[in-house]
């Protein structure tokens, strides 16, 4: 478990909220796999999906559903789908053709254990299972809401999101990158799925346009802040704490926020983004406590 600061505001206990969310998500993830054949594929999928991780994306989805007045239980299949897409992206990102890493979530990367072919296919199976979770395993959610969720997930995972960000990121290794390009990479590679996490929870609850608009702004800001902090942690934290190889951006000669702006200015930017995210949710005051605390957690996290 990461070190975390208990944020207690108006009787809201953030540590307890986070722990309860993680328990719920872990249980749902555990029950979401099976019956994959052959056994090696199932093992590879379970290995990465159940390897821990902060579970931030599913927790954001559940919190957003609750803020919009929805039944959190109905959002659980989508929450697991988000973690599946995220895990797939980590497996593929670690492959030799991409970031070529051998440590993830504190253990050897998927391809180191199961081989490249199985790792690629385990990622593919998780990505497609994610859509199955929403389309076929979300009882009780009206079909038109599920269709919107599927739309958001497609945009986030594909060329307009993760894939687009990743390809620009790879092309930027070893070359000078300006702040606009760096922001493009961060918003797509990392921000798109965080944004989808927040929006899908609200869509399942049937949120109105005002709230969806506010959540769009909130999630764009926290998505960018999240990756800025990721860049900072890459240079300030150890591999042991991060559970992945620290200092990777330097080795791969990547442009990062600390490289362009320095550590202090990068931190200040992330904090300003979190402030902006919280500001936009102020009309929802008390009900938004979990999302406000999650925004602050993004800049205070140590891994
Ligand atoms: C094949 C459709 C398809 C997409 C894959 C490989 C790829 C395209 C994109 C890479 C996206 C990527 C790995 C972005 C980094 C995002 C990031 C900051 C990950 C770390 O997230 P945390 O800190 O990790 O939430 P945990 O382990 O806590 O879940």
Helices and strands in order:
Blueprint: E1 8-9, E2 12-13, H1 14-32, H2 39-49, H3 56-67, H4 72-93, E3 103-104, E4 107-108, H5 110-114, H6 116-136, H7 143-157, H8 162-171, H9 179-205, H10 209-236, H11 239-242, H12 248-251, H13 257-261, H14 263-280, H15 289-300
Antiparallel strand pairs: 1-2, 3-4
Helix pairs in contact: 1-4, 2-6, 3-4, 3-9, 4-6, 4-9, 7-9, 8-9, 9-10, 10-14, 14-15
The protein binds geranylgeranyl diphosphate.
Describe this structure in words.
The protein has 303 residues and is mainly alpha-helical. It has one domain (2-300): Farnesyl Diphosphate Synthase (Orthogonal Bundle). The chain has 15 helices and 4 strands. The protein has helices at 14-32, 39-49, 56-67, 72-93, 110-114, 116-136, 143-157, 162-171, 179-205, 209-236, 239-242, 248-251, 257-261, 263-280, 289-300, and strands spanning 8-9, 12-13, 103-104, 107-108. The strands form 2 sheets. Strands 1-2 form a two-stranded antiparallel sheet. The chain starts with 7 loop residues before the first strand and ends with a helix. Geranylgeranyl diphosphate binds at residues 53-54, 56, 86, 89-90, 92-93, 98, 105, 127, 157, 162-163, 166, 189-190, 227, 230.
């Amino acid at each position: 478990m990461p070190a975390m600061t208990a944020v207690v505001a108006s009787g809201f206990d953030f540590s307890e909220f986070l722990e309860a969310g993680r328990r719920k998500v872990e249980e749902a993830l555990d029950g979401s796999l099976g019956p994959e054949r052959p056994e090696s594929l199932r093992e590879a999928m379970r290995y990465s999906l159940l390897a821990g991780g902060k579970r931030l994306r599913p927790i954001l989805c559940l919190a957003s559903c609750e803020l919009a007045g929805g039944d959190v239980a109905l959002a659980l299949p989508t929450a697991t789908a988000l973690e599946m897409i995220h895990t797939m992206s980590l497996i593929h990102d670690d492959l030799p053709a991409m970031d070529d890493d051998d440590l993830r979530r504190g253990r050897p990367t998927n391809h180191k254990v199961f081989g490249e072919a199985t790792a690629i296919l385990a990622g593919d199976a998780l990505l497609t299972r994610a859509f199955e979770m929403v389309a076929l395993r979300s009882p009780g959610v009206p079909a038109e809401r599920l269709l919107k969720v599927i739309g958001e997930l497609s945009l986030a995972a594909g060329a307009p999101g993760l894939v687009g960000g990743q390809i620009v990121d790879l092309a930027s290794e070893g070359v000078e990158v300006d702040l606009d390009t760096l922001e493009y990479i961060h918003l797509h590679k990392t921000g798109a799925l965080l944004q989808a996490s927040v929006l899908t929870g609200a869509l399942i609850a049937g949120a109105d346009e005002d709230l969806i608009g506010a959540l769009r702004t909130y999630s764009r800001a926290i998505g960018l802040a999240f990756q800025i902090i990721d860049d900072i942690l890459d240079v300030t934290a150890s591999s042991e704490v991060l559970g992945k190889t620290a200092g990777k951006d330097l080795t791969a000669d990547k442009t990062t926020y600390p490289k362009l702006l320095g550590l202090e200015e990068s931190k200040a930017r992330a904090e300003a983004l979190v402030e902006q995210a919280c500001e936009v949710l102020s009309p929802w005051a008390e009900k938004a406590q979990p999302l406000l605390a999650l925004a602050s957690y993004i800049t205070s996290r140590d891994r």
